[in-house]
Design brief:
Blueprint: H1 14-24, H2 37-101, E1 107-108, E2 111-112, E3 137-138, H3 156-174, H4 177-180, H5 186-189, H6 194-202, E4 231-232, E5 238-250, E6 253-270, E7 273-291, E8 301-311, E9 361-365
Parallel strand pairs: 8-9
Antiparallel strand pairs: 1-2, 3-5, 4-6, 5-6, 6-7, 7-8
């Protein structure tokens, strides 16, 4: 025995102990042992039951998925049908709207669709088409002033000034929009002499007629459509006018007379009813007498002595307003009870002037009906 070593038996470690127990049969049952036949049969039966359970669960899961899938398909189909119905409804709605918009009782091109007569469907782009007025000048350009020449003792400058004043008066009484629409005729009033202005204003709101049938209202001196009866179509009024100059004596006074003959055509319609459109023609004839009426010095002053005859209006006009006679929808315009042509002037320059200055008057004619 080597030096320093003890003769005592060394301590048994764990490995030695486990080996000894195994050899002596005291190690207990094995931690991992081979199963018996009965145990194997029992395990197999349990495995079969588990497999069946898994199969049943899988079948239920598949059926659930199938139902869900079918539900999604049905939902998709329902959504598709819903979209189709909405689209169809929208299409039907659009068709219904278009039918309503273009159907009976609605308007197109300014007239009713149910009224197939082009003449009553509303005014055309050119409301003067097919009439002599279509060739006339627009507005004031149609009131022509001739070259001024001396007339008797009146110089060319005085005649020219009288022509200009006459044109301004004609514009104010026949073309002023405010006056035409029934407003205050201030444009005309501002051009009158003090005495003529006083006479005009005093009779402006007078009603009734003289025994001759002429209106007592000085409103008839100007063209004013009765309020609410007419509105102008567009901005063009056609005019054909002429002037000439001559002299005559009034109470020992030599007077410069500017003769006028003006035709004025107004395209109008009843407010808000374009299917009623028509044309009214005013024939202004007579003269403007220039003399020193209110002032014996200075420039010559006008005193209007004209007659206005309207075609296509009510007669007589006892209130001074112009009342259009609108044609019935679909009716053929009348030619006029007297068979006259409203586009032909009633009178040009008079062959003889009166010896006294008469009061301006108005007349009316149904010539041309809806002109």
């Amino acid at each position: 025995m080597p030096e320093g070593m003890s003769d005592q038996t060394p301590a048994e470690d764990d490995i030695d102990r486990q080996l000894r127990e195994l050899t002596e049969g005291r190690a207990g049952s094995a931690r991992y042992s081979e199963p018996s036949a009965a145990q194997r049969a029992k395990a197999a039966e349990q495995a079969r039951k588990q497999a069946k359970a898994r199969a049943r669960e899988a079948g239920r899961r598949d059926r659930r998925m199938a139902r869900r899938s079918g539900g999604r398909r049905r939902a998709t189909q329902a959504l598709s049908w819903t979209i189709a119905i909405v689209v169809l409804a929208a299409a039907v709605g659009l068709l219904s709207w278009r039918h309503h918009a273009l159907g009976i009782g609605s308007t197109a091109a300014g007239g009713t669709v149910s009224n197939l007569n082009p003449a009553t469907a509303g005014p055309p782009a050119d409301p003067f088409a097919g009439t002599p007025a279509d060739q006339w000048a627009d507005g004031a350009a149609g009131i022509l002033i001739p070259a001024a020449k001396p007339v008797g003792p009146f110089s060319a400058a005085q005649v020219a000034a009288a022509y200009t004043a006459t044109k301004r008066l004609l514009i104010a009484e026949t073309l002023d929009k405010q006056t035409l629409e029934g407003g205050a005729p201030t444009a005309f009033i501002d051009l009158l002499t003090p005495s003529a202005r006083s006479q005009f204003l005093s009779g402006l709101n007078v009603r009734g007629a003289y025994p001759t049938g002429q209106s007592r209202s000085s409103r008839s001196y100007v063209e004013s459509f009765a309020p609410g009866t007419a509105q102008l179509i567009g901005s063009v009024i056609k005019v054909k006018g002429s002037m000439s100059a001559q002299t005559y004596r009034q109470s020992g006074m030599l007077v410069l007379a500017i003769n006028v003959s003006d035709l004025v055509t107004y395209p109008i319609e009843r407010p808000g009813q374009p299917g009623t459109w028509m044309r009214v023609v005013a024939d202004v004839y007579g003269f403007f007498a220039f003399a020193h009426w209110d002032n014996q010095s200075g420039s010559l002053q006008p005193w209007e002595q004209t007659i206005v005859a309207n075609s296509g209006v009510q007669c007589p006009m006892t209130d001074g307003w112009v009342h259009p006679v609108y044609p019935s929808l679909g009716a053929v315009p009348a030619s006029g009870s007297d068979g006259g042509n409203p586009y032909t002037p009633i009178s040009v320059a008079p062959s003889a002037l009166p010896t006294a200055v008469p009061t301006k008057s108005s007349a009316c004619s149904v010539s041309g009906g809806s002109t």
